[in-house]
Amino acid sequence: MSNYKKAYIAGGCFWGMEDLFRTRPGVVDTEVGYQGGDNDNPTYKNHPGHAEGIEITYNPDETSFKELLDYFFRMHNPTTVDRQGNDRGSSYRSAIFYQNEEEKQIAEEMINIVNASGKWDNKVVTTLEPWSTFWKAEDYHQDYLVKNPNGYTCHFLRFEEPFI
């Protein structure tokens, strides 16, 4: 386990993102939570400025940060500001919380690749934000769509073919 890495992203309701990422090759674990906001110990009812995001634990021998981002840009709409499906507000923004300059450069490269592909009608508005504390969401949010298979999600794979 010592070589596992973590990635932090947000792209709308965390339930749907977690449900899709959990099955990706190389993904070892997922947690949903809040990141990038104004208060410590945020909750679902009190998370000003925080995005609903996920922490992805992955094995870099089986997948890469770039491959995770490629999937991220195909399973949510990165061209809408503060919105995914019916969910609106900064909690639902598209964001990558980079942990170092290498991750920031990879994220910038992926945004350029996605924009150059022309697959989306509009340009990517995903924000690149320096890593900040990831606050694990309440237990009832973890694995929500496993516990509630008919629960709400606005996430699905929009493009089968990878960008990279």
Mean pLDDT: 96
Instruction: Point out poorly predicted stretches.
Output: none
Examine the coordinates and then state which fold CATH places here, giving the name of the CATH topology.
Answer: Peptide Methionine Sulfoxide Reductase, Chain A
> Looking across the biggest beta sheet, what order are the strands in?
7-6-1-3-2-8
Counted by DSSP, the helix tally is 4
Helix- and strand-based class?
alpha+beta
Quaternary:
single chain
| Total domain modules | 1
What is the CATH top level name?
Alpha Beta
Instruction: Summarize the helix and strand pattern as letters.
Output: EHEEHEEEHEEH
**Overall CATH architecture:** 2-Layer Sandwich
Helix % is: 10-25%
Question: Kindly, what is the distance between the CA atoms of the first and last residues, rounded to a whole number of angstroms?
Answer: 27 Å
What would you call the shape? globular
Would you identify the CATH H-level superfamily? Peptide methionine sulphoxide reductase MsrA
Q: What is the CA-atom radius of gyration, in angstroms?
A: 15 Å
Q: Give a count of the beta strands, DSSP E runs of length 2 or more.
A: 8
- Which range does the strand content fall in? 15-25%
For the biggest sheet, the summary is: 6 strands, mixed
